[in-house]
């Protein structure tokens, strides 16, 4: 039996589990549109779902209004990753439950505002099986991801901004730039947040990924607020990808293989462009969704 066939058997065995379903399941290949107020600039924004959900893994993503709960267990590989060998062979086994959408163009102000709750114990601890390629365990909870339209005149195409849950439980905000010596190499940690505590926290970001003209050409802006307090404010930062169309937004869980379970919940995910598009959310966030009471494995998930 080949290594890949053996791995497929392991994944299939993992999928035979039947946990209780208490949220609206979102299966791979469908869209999720958070139910935001019509006054929100993100009203109607839809996201593509990428998860291991196949009926027996409906815990991977459950939704209620603007609330989304993501869970990844050992062996939860997205079928497309398996089919195309993306993060499955060569780069080690990757596991995910995440959604993606909303492309932002170069030279554009973009704002994100959302609430997040990270279940204690969700940090990655298992060393990846192929250290040569991965080096250490990783768990990305959100990222601005490269598109498939690189500008060959600018070189590499890295992820410009990553929010990564570290093995020590801290959430690190990290950047890459096509101007750094190894654009697809190590992420540079700009700051960390200690929020893996099972309670809700509010995050707001204001970003320009990279400028194409002027004295700050090739650099960007990153401003961040946690629970209404400024935690980072730097202009002229090296942060940006060599792309024509710009990066797109993804959130959920994307990690190296782990024997543990990761659970992250989001609410009121808003992404909008404009110099002051979501500035008001720093002091005045959207009201959290109500009306859901439920549990998975005996743990209250919302309400």
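^ structure tokens above, recovered residues below v
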């Amino acid at each position: 039996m080949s290594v890949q066939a053996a791995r497929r058997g392991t994944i299939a065995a993992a999928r035979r589990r039947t946990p209780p379903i208490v949220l609206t399941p979102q299966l791979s290949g469908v869209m999720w549109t958070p139910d935001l107020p019509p006054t929100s600039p993100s009203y109607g924004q839809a996201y593509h779902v990428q998860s291991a959900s196949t009926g027996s893994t409906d815990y991977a993503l459950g939704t209620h209004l603007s609330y989304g709960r993501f869970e990844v267990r050992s062996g939860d590989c997205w079928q497309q990753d398996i089919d195309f060998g993306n993060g499955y062979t060569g780069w080690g086994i990757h596991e995910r439950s995440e959604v993606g959408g909303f492309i932002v163009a170069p030279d554009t102000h973009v704002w994100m505002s959302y609430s997040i709750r990270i279940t204690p114990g969700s940090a990655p601890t298992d060393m990846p099986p192929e250290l040569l390629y991965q080096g250490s365990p990783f768990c990305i909870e959100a990222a601005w991801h490269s598109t498939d339209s690189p500008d060959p005149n600018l070189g590499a195409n890295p992820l410009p901004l990553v929010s990564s849950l570290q093995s020590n439980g801290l959430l690190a905000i990290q950047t890459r730039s096509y101007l750094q010596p190894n654009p697809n190499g190590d992420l540079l940690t700009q700051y960390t947040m200690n929020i893996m505590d099972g309670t809700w926290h509010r995050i707001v970001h204001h970003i320009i990924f990279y400028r194409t003209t002027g004295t700050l050409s090739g650099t960007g802006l990153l401003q961040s607020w946690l629970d209404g307090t400024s935690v980072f404010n730097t202009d002229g930062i090296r942060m940006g990808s060599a792309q024509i169309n710009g990066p797109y937004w993804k959130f959920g869980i994307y990690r190296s293989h782990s024997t543990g379970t990761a659970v992250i919940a989001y609410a009121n995910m808003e992404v909008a462009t404009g110099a002051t598009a979501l500035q008001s959310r720093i002091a005045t966030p959207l009201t959290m969704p109500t009306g859901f009471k439920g549990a998975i494995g005996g743990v209250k998930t919302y309400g």
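The domain at 3-292 is CATH 2.60.120.200 (Jelly Rolls).
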